């Protein structure tokens, strides 16, 4: 009796917030899961359920995923296990999945999303843990990273550097709308906290707010919102800065179509989906040079880049963009063209297809 052929994806629940869930949603909605008969095994509960049963429910979810991983290898033909991981606990949790998959004789595609993975490895891991990290990476048949910067780093810890490949994140196109565009609206999407540079953006906006009385800043995301609301009140900008909460789906697309400027002055990034969505929607991008952002935005070509933490630089870029409509339009048009040629699903998913095809007849 021939076994049914499947592929397994390991990651969070698609209904969760966060970058990996967004990537998985795009893969599912694009038809990629259906095309490759993908079974999704979640290794942690949704945000709403993570504290259930005094936090013990998350261990049940992880244990169930391991049991199902063995079950599928016993009763199905599993071509590969595609493991999406970030850093710290996520990585050590997924390292168990890597080992178990190899014990079952399976193939592993390790997909690295963690924007702080290098800091985690170099600053937080003992030498023993570093050896463990390198061992897990070297057990993988293919390591997928999100940018050329991450490729350089990963190749240094792989015994076979050729196993590492860059596959950029992708998002569906958000059709621009000139009628909805507000040139004075600055939009931020992401966790509102230090890593994403939200405080720097607020302080930079405060410096230019008097010169641009029509400008508004909208912050969409979760995080320590009350603390940032207090900062905004201290700066006297309650009527100029809005906190949107976590936005997704059609609501996110609506904000992206409205925004004249999309700002993300992060300290660490993998390859942020928000930048791609802004490029697609026709918003002008102002971002830091963190992670893979320079792969998407070339300074003064598709947008403006600053060094992380440079509040003066953020303020100066905001001044430049708010005062020059032609410049904004030029950057937005060039970013849209780059999105279509480099980051659209039509470009990215054939690259994933080729990875999956490598293992489709391997067993």
Can you put this structure into words, describing what you see?
Helices cover 46% and strands 18% of the residues. By secondary structure, it is α/β, with parallel strands linked by helices. The chain has two domains: 5-170 and 345-358, Glycogen Phosphorylase B (Rossmann fold), CATH 3.40.50; 182-342, Rossmann fold (3-Layer(aba) Sandwich). α11 links the parallel β10 (259-264) and β11 (284-288). It starts with a strand and ends in a 5-residue tail after the last helix. The model has no long low-confidence stretch (mean pLDDT 90).
Give the class from helix and strand content and strand pairing: alpha/beta
- In CATH, what is the class of the largest domain? Alpha Beta
Q: What separation lies between the terminal Cα atoms? A: 15 Å
Strand order of the largest sheet: 2-1-3-4-5-6
The CATH homologous superfamily of the largest domain is called Glycogen Phosphorylase B
* Domains, number: 2
Task: Quote the average pLDDT.
Answer: 90
Roughly how many Å is the radius of gyration? Answer: 21 Å
Main sheet attributes: strand count, strand direction, barrel closure: 6 strands, parallel
Strand percentage, roughly? Answer: 15-25%
Can you tell me the CATH topology of the largest domain?
A: Rossmann fold
Order of helices and strands: EHHEHEHEHHEHEEHEHEHEHEHEHHH
Give a quick rundown of the structure.
The protein is of the alpha/beta class and 363 residues long. The chain contains 15 helices and twelve strands. The strands form two sheets. A six-stranded parallel β-sheet has the order 2-1-3-4-5-6, sandwiched between helices. The protein has a six-stranded parallel β-sheet with strand order 9-8-7-10-11-12, with helices on both faces.
